[in-house]
Amino acid sequence: DSGVTQTPKHLITATGQRVTLRCSPRSGDLSVYWYQQSLDQGLQFLIQYYNGEERAKGNILERFSAQQFPDLHSELNLSSLELGDSALYFCASRGQGRSEAFFGQGTRLTVV
Amino acid sequence: DQQVKQNSPSLSVQEGRISILNCDYTNSMFDYFLWYKKYPAEGPTFLISISSIKDKNEDGRFTVFLNKSAKHLSLHIVPSQPGDSAVYFCVAGYGGATNKLIFGTGTLLAVQP
């Protein structure tokens, strides 16, 4: 158990819809990362938050947005969903001064 | 632009032998490197890391070597075990806790009994 909790584990939705993925980081970790993994490919970095502020952005679509709340949990919002958005979405958290990040089990999103 | 490259998509090794997974990177600004192991439908699990100021780090059966001049690192697993069969990701990062981690494309390791 990494200590990072992601909900829901599975999500099936229709094209054009909007969904919210939730991540609770490890206790005390201020950094939260979001990654997308499509079709057993590598993990594509989407966005990073540190203590509520956006710190780094990757290949995140404009239809996607995220935020980190005062209690440090984070949400990834995906809107106007397309079939190609079907993927595993991972959240990771990292502690201050640490090199390693710890990953949750992921949310599998299926767009039909 | 793929900053972290794992050119071998797969590797097959006999149980008890050495597994060597390779990784190349292009950005000389990376401060540290990590290896993660991933089973299907699970999140990546941290294995071992190395700072850019070192050339070797060892943890049990896992050793990571870094050659900064060649922008190359490798993960050695000795002896390899069937339970090591998974996808291995090479990851690079910048200093501090506020920057992104860049994943390579992964290498699928199969350890044959």
The SSE string of chain B, one letter per element, is EEEEEEEEEEE
Tell me what portion of residues of chain B adopts beta-strand conformation: over 45%
Oligomer: heterodimer
| Separate helix tally of chain B | 0
Radius of gyration of chain B: 13 Å
Point out poorly predicted stretches of chain B.
none
Can you give the helix content of chain A as a percent range? Answer: under 10%
Structural class, judged by helices and strands of chain B?
A: mainly beta
Number of strands of chain B: 11
How far the N terminus sits from the C terminus of chain A, by CA atoms, comes to 31 Å
Shape of chain A: globular
How many strand units of chain A? Answer: 11
How many DSSP H or I helices of chain A? 0
Low-confidence stretches of chain A: none
How many whole angstroms does the radius of gyration of chain A measure? Answer: 13 Å
Alpha-beta content class of chain A: mainly beta
Percentage of residues in helical conformation of chain B:
under 10%
In words, what does this structure look like?
The complex is a heterodimer of chains A (112) and B (113). Chain A has 112 residues and is an all-beta fold. In chain A, strands 2, 4, 5, 6, 9, 10 and 11 form a 7-stranded mixed β-sheet that branches. A 4-stranded antiparallel β-sheet of chain A has the order 1-3-8-7, with no helix packed on it. In chain A, 0% of the residues lie in helices and 52% in strands. The model of chain B has no long low-confidence stretch (mean pLDDT 93). The interface between A and B is medium-sized, with 34 and 25 residues.
